[in-house]
Amino acid sequence: MDYKIGVISGDGIGPEIVAEAKKVLDAVGKIYGISFNYTEILMGGISIDKTGKPLTEEAIADAKASDAVLMGSIGGNTATSPWYQLPPSLRPEAGLLALRKALKLFANLRPALLYPQLKEACPLRDEIVGDGFDMIIVRELTGGLYFGARKTEEIDGRITATDTLTYNEDEIRRIARKAFDVASRRRKKLTSVDKANVLDSSRLWRKIVEEVAGDYPQVAYEHMLVDNAAMQLVKDPGQFDVILTENMFGDILSDEASMLTGSIGMLASASLNETKFGLYEPSGGSAPDIAGQGIANPIATILSAAMMLRFSLDQDRAADAIGAAVAGTLEEGYRTADIMPQRETRGIRQVSTCEMGDLICQRLV
């Protein structure tokens, strides 16, 4: 099988971590008879430097012509970068927002996986995390409070700000279907998070989720209020498989879940549209302070590439092989700087960005 992959290396550590993800993709491709044709796409700070814009029409066209897009990171240090002296519409992040809109990406998938080998990096007690946990948060990405009407005005002599939270049934139905599809490929358990005891939008959310659930009898599902979900994440994270929720709740809960894994350098993510097309990227930022030093953790980007294989390209065996190779590398004691134990631990060895990519390639089967 041949696939066209758009590649946005981006800024900061982006080129370094994307290089390792491509290395792993090419290695697993040789094993499973898959080939990747990469098209480099400019976006973010590097695009501003070369074209004066964070995203060009040519870049959008190249992304649309791809089977999927793999991205590193964009932006720089907001305190010192000249990019942040520009108007907001011309800053690096504006390119990402414009690309998401152009590609109609409405579903954000954010796995939170704690490997047993990294238990000590988790802030929770051992008896809570057990042998680790493996969940994925499916967040609606284009509706809700962040995209509703907003205004600030003076009423009766006081400044008043208003933000509107709006969802329609079609928006809820499509994200629910995406989440149930994901759950059906995992452990077949879904938790829908809302605030139905207070919000009309959440009551509609719950109604539509129940309708969609009827089409997935193989998936067990439950409803959970968002405040309880936040508590349960730190009380018993292992109970979750797939968490489905709206935009703001997903923003908050995914950040909470990410801290339980010990390092954001381990966290992959995907943004999908209504087809199999997706944009795959690590959850962390561009980390310009460590760019070029060879110490960035490429695992999140490598796992994002594995998500691309699974969700956009239907190459589950290759995706599983990458996941197993990452786990095996960690099991043998190899770590990048961000996941090194705070105390000296026998058998643990720090490796560079490039070395981590090589080690994962060597363990692919």
UniProtKB/TrEMBL annotation:
Residues noted as binding NAD(+) in the record, renumbered to the chain: G285, S286, A287, P288, D289, I290, A291, G292, Q293, G294, I295, A296, N297
Protein role: Catalyzes the oxidation of 3-carboxy-2-hydroxy-4-methylpentanoate (3-isopropylmalate) to 3-carboxy-4-methyl-2-oxopentanoate. The product decarboxylates to 4-methyl-2 oxopentanoate.
Cofactor note: Binds 1 Mg(2+) or Mn(2+) ion per subunit.
Gene (UniProt): leuB
Assembly and binders: Homodimer.
PROSITE patterns: IDH_IMDH
Pathway: Amino-acid biosynthesis; L-leucine biosynthesis; L-leucine from 3-methyl-2-oxobutanoate: step 3/4
Signal peptide positions (record): none
Isopropylmalate dehydrogenase-like domain segment(s): 4-360
A Gene Ontology molecular function term of the record: 3-isopropylmalate dehydrogenase activity
Residues bound to substrate: R100, R110, R139, D227
Names of required cofactors: Mn(2+); Mg(2+)
SUPFAM superfamilies found in the cross-reference section: Isocitrate/Isopropylmalate dehydrogenase-like
GO cellular component terms, semicolon-separated: cytosol
Site feature: Important for catalysis: Y146, K195
Protein name, UniProt field: 3-isopropylmalate dehydrogenase
E.C. no: 1.1.1.85
SMART domains assigned: Iso_dh
Keywords: Amino-acid biosynthesis, Branched-chain amino acid biosynthesis, Cytoplasm, Leucine biosynthesis, Magnesium, Manganese, Metal-binding, NAD, Oxidoreductase
Reactions catalysed: (2R,3S)-3-isopropylmalate + NAD(+) = 4-methyl-2-oxopentanoate + CO2 + NADH
Localization of this protein: Cytoplasm
Gene Ontology BP annotations: L-leucine biosynthetic process
Amino-acid positions noted as binding Mg(2+) in the UniProt annotation, renumbered to this chain: D227, D251, D255
Subcellular location, principal: cytoplasm
